[in-house]
Design goal:
about 90 residues; alpha/beta; 3-stranded parallel β-sheet; two-stranded antiparallel sheet; about 25% helix; about 20% strand
């Protein structure tokens, strides 16, 4: 999440109302050299996507069988709506 290309793509998807885009973010708090918060904290990740105009669904990555909060259970927005993002932990 520390790459400019990721945020450029996020802004582009929102700018052009690409409602068929869904980003699943593995927000496990770890990167190559250690904990993300100690190297370059990216939190609050969901709020950042929301600020770019995305619909954010927080999902527990250890309970993907749960129907609530998963992208497939989310009502489909009308065409031209926001892209969606699911930061999972």
């Amino acid at each position: 999440m520390q790459e400019g290309q990721i945020w450029e793509a996020a802004m582009t998807a929102a700018q052009f109302s690409l409602d068929n885009v869904c980003a699943v973010v593995d927000d496990n708090g770890v990167q190559l050299d250690g904990p993300t918060k100690d190297i370059m904290d990216v939190e609050p990740l969901g709020a950042k996507f929301a600020a770019f105009g995305w619909e954010v669904l927080d999902v527990d990555g250890h309970s993907l069988g749960r129907p609530c909060g998963t992208p497939s259970a989310s009502p489909r927005p009308p065409r031209g709506g926001p892209p969606s993002s699911s930061p999972t932990r």
